[in-house]
Amino acid sequence: MNGDLFFGLLRCLRPAAKQQAMAHTPNPKQQLQTHHHMIKDLSSNFKDTTVKILLLGTAESGKTTIIKQMRILHINGFTDDERREKIPEIYQNIHDSINQLVMHMGLLGLRFGSCTSERSANYILSLPAEAPEYFNEEYCDHVTTLWNDVGIRACYDRSNEFPLLDSAKYFLDNFARICDVDYIPSTEDILHSRKVTTGITQITFRVPVGSGEQEFRMYDVGGQRDERNKWIQVFEGIQAVLFLISCSEFDQNLREDGNQNRLQEALNLFRAVWQNRFLASAGLIVFLNKYDIMERKIRAGKHIVDYFPDFEDFCKRPQQQQSCFDECDWTKMFIKQKMIDITQEQFKRNSRNLCDFSSAERECYYHFTVATDTRCIRDVFSDVQQMILSENMTMAGSTLF
Predict the structure, then answer these.
(1) What whole-number distance in Å separates Cα of residue 397 and Cα of residue 392?
(2) Is 26 in a helix, a strand, or coil?
(3) Whole-angstrom Cα distance, residue 52 to residue 74?
(4) What is the Cα–Cα distance from 95 to 143, expressed in whole angstroms?
């Protein structure tokens, strides 16, 4: 994955570098001879440039988690005070999750496993929508009882039929630790916490490159439908778009539109981003995120063919049969192929926001990711740093030889 991403971002972020390199590419021996001299010259330029990256995707695709990872990797993470500030958010995630599970028991025709669980459910339903400021013993006992109930677990197994946070199981599995009076959120807790993004947020960080530094500015925007009209405010000067799509949402519908499949919504949005004229010069990298949750769903008996019937024909393609070994592989490749097909469509000309790239070369790069996995994200952005240095060396080298 690392080598492909290195090459993809190299071409995506600075398309001009590719053209210059093609015009005159030095041989490896010459590159090695000038390597150390060029690093010294190039590092002085890094501090004067900023790589601007825009995170796009539907709600709950993992954009804000990427922002958190950048803070963990490049801004020394979170202080204890900042961790404590996340407690209300985590409490609300837990409260929303158990409330949703209890409310949908009856709607799904499920029964609690005991009278004790029914009393605990009534207690939860009697509370306001806002999470308690503190998780007292009574609250903790009721939530623990419910999460251990066979009926609630059956409800969770059908959570694709109603809105439930992806992190619900994580937090409820760790509920005993979170209930501790001295609880301070761990880094993993913060990565799993969810708060609706509204408006536009950004993070700026510097990373060492050679003997200099490279500044990155990353923008996060809300992915809900009513937030997307704000995206254009940050399109100017963007050098790369990281489009996140959740592989695990093939069997879920939108919160804001119960009739629209989430994965189909993401594909439609990707098409709009790919064809948008304001992003014509920006490189596009796709993170097919949450494939770990996707795999867990498939192993539990969920099948993408039930929501995308053309999956059956896709599996008959002989060129795919050599690289796919199980249903998880097939599903990942199917979603990726859906996006590749979009990039090969003829551009529509019925909107001033769309642009025809038929005469210009443009590529898109795809990578399967787990945004909550810090090691995975560290590898990705380690390659970004290498790409910046390598590209500048290529550009400088083309002028020397």
Answers:
(1) 8
(2) coil
(3) 16
(4) 9
